[in-house]
Amino acid sequence: MRLGLLYSGGKDSTLAALLLDNFYDVTLMTATFGITDDWTYARDTAESLDFAFERLDLDPDVAADAVETIRTDGFPRNGIQRVHQHALEALAESGFDAVADGTRRDDRVPTVSRAQAQSLEDRHDVDYIAPLSGFGRQAVDRLVDSTLDVTVGPSEEITRADYEAELRALIAEADGQDSIGSLFPAHEQTHVRGVQDR
């Protein structure tokens, strides 16, 4: 069965790909609004891991709506959640038998509720799979530390293909780079370089 996995090139989506690889024909799908070319890093990581890779083009109007939501709210949660739901919808319409993401059990954003997952499945006749939904952050970190070669750093320094980076770019372009710090909490991101040698 063919499965499309929303892929950023980070540790969670890479670990999800490795877990699903035994059961599905996995294609790593990087969702992009075309605002930056950061998606090429995800492509390079996918190739180094020997996974098929495709770009999933998203509706730029959704990015504009998400940015407006972030500005209005003063924090990114609802904007990022909106983009993730749009990306899952676009992925489900791409002809796969199953779709997946790298959301974990204790993620605050993005999340996919049981009702949202069932609705996605029913409307698009796909299986929705969240292979890390039973894993907490500590468990994921332990698996990643023993399996993947990862670069870790502040969001503004790590290049990876996720919609948060594109939303940040839109806000910085409109409101200046200094506005990012007031809307997005400081946190670390990861970029996977490959699998550790064993």
Descriptive keywords:
Rossmann fold, alpha/beta, 198 residues, five-stranded parallel β-sheet
Description:
With 198 residues, the protein is an alpha/beta fold. The protein has one domain: HUPs (Rossmann fold), CATH 3.40.50.620. The protein has 8 helices and 7 strands, in the order βαβαβααβαβαβααβ. It has a 5-stranded parallel beta sheet with strand order 3-2-1-4-5, sandwiched between helices. Helix 3 (60-73) runs antiparallel to helix 4 (77-92) and helix 3 crosses helix 7. The longest helix is centred in the middle third of the chain and has 16 residues, at 77-92. The chain is globular and about 45 Å long. It starts with a strand and ends with a strand.
DSSP E strands, number: 7
CATH C-level category = Alpha Beta
Mean pLDDT: 92
Q: How many separate domains? A: 1
| Global geometry | globular
Cα(first) to Cα(last) distance is: 29 Å
DSSP helix count? 8
Order of strands across the widest beta sheet?
A: 3-2-1-4-5
Annotated CATH topology:
Rossmann fold
How large is the radius of gyration? 16 Å
> Mind describing the biggest β-sheet?
5 strands, parallel
Strand content: 15-25%
Query: What is the correct CATH architecture?
Result: 3-Layer(aba) Sandwich
H-E order: EHEHEHHEHEHEHHE
Low-confidence stretches are none
The CATH homologous superfamily name equals HUPs
Which structural category do the helix and sheet elements fall into?
alpha/beta
**Percent helix:** 40-55%
